[in-house]
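Recall the central idea of this unit: under ordinary conditions, the amino acid sequence of a chain determines the structure it adopts. In this exercise we apply that idea directly, starting from the sequence alone.
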Amino acid sequence: MRLLRELRPLRQALESWHADGTRVSDWRISWTWERGAEVGVKDAEPANVHSPLTMAEGVSARVFIQWSDGQISSRRAERAELARPGELLSSARAARYEDPDAANFLGPQAWPDVPLFSLATASVAEDAPVPLAALLEVAGKLAAAHRFSTYSGTVSAAHRRAGVLTSRGCEAEGESTAFSYYFWFEGQAGEGWTRREIISPEVARGRLAETCDHVRRLGEREAAFAGGALPVLLHPQVAEAFFTTYFLANLSGERIWNRQSAFRIEHFRERALLFREDLSVRLDPLVPYGAGSYRFTSEGLPARRADYLVCGRLASPMLDLKYARRFGLEPVPPPAGIESVIIEAGAMEGPEKILGEMGRGLLVLGVLGLHTQDHTSGEFSLSAPQSLAVGPGRLGGRVRAGLSGNFFECLRSPALRLVRFPGFHMPGLLIPAIVAVD
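Accordingly, the structure predicted from this sequence is:
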């Protein structure tokens, strides 16, 4: 394979490098090759000068080294640097540091066989971008049908190979594809999706049509909507952002070790009951063609299923090799995306049923400022200008709202409901919150 030939000089340099009485004791190379195609639309002008069809190929690698004096280095390199391995290693040596717990190098492993590659998608990424244009046309027709003045977005396809090599005999390699789009209408609301296989125009049209309906409603302000303690339905895209910020981020072994997490390692060892007793969260990276599936991590760890939360009790944090060593536990792989995370909490209903039962409340399509919140406390106070009034028994117009509450309390609340939105892996979340209306 051409990529492995490109890595050969670096591998040889790692095995022979020495300077000032120092040599390389162990090493790991995590590499990626990608060929991709992308085209966009900017302000209702497809493939204009701001969003032309682009096709690119690239190679990158991260080399992790333990030197014979016990120090370590980590260095990212692009294709040009890989051709000058002596300079690369000298630069890495100059940036060495002490961290003995990080010096972990796997030997041979057994990796699961998970299909992640679509030949049709790869052909789009390499020389047949017609399916990209087809989705641009879908978005354009929907915008015209709704008389929107502008829309923007991108469609892309990628063919990737990735692998891990170590001095101790770990040689992982895998091939995958990705096809994705994201469109934004009237500067109000957008929708995106990623799959391993080509997304058909018919399927994309169904998802985007719902987004266009939301945008139309956002253009009609709801009159006399009063705030207060209300049921709030977070659209899956918003629910994902909340769940990632407040729950998944706190599972990080690094954050737990550094006391930057809401959780302590004792919570996992004691299986502490911290959330609703029917709430479970698990990792499944082994779904064939799953957008979040993978065969191995960047350290060479085999992908496997894992429980993060079982019936409200913390089960496992996310632990790479370094923090697994520090805590004296087995490594636990992280998700590659929300698509590899399974969330369960009671029966899951569709949005039509939930909206019909909510009474007066909000459907939240977007929030501002989530990155500024304290993820360890669970507290949130956010602007939600892209919200729609709900009920009773109807979906109404736009409400410029502010939301406040505590997301951890929401995950304990009997009012929490998971809502299955067709086409979305992440469920919507019905939560109690305080709503303030501008």
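Residues 264-345 form one domain.
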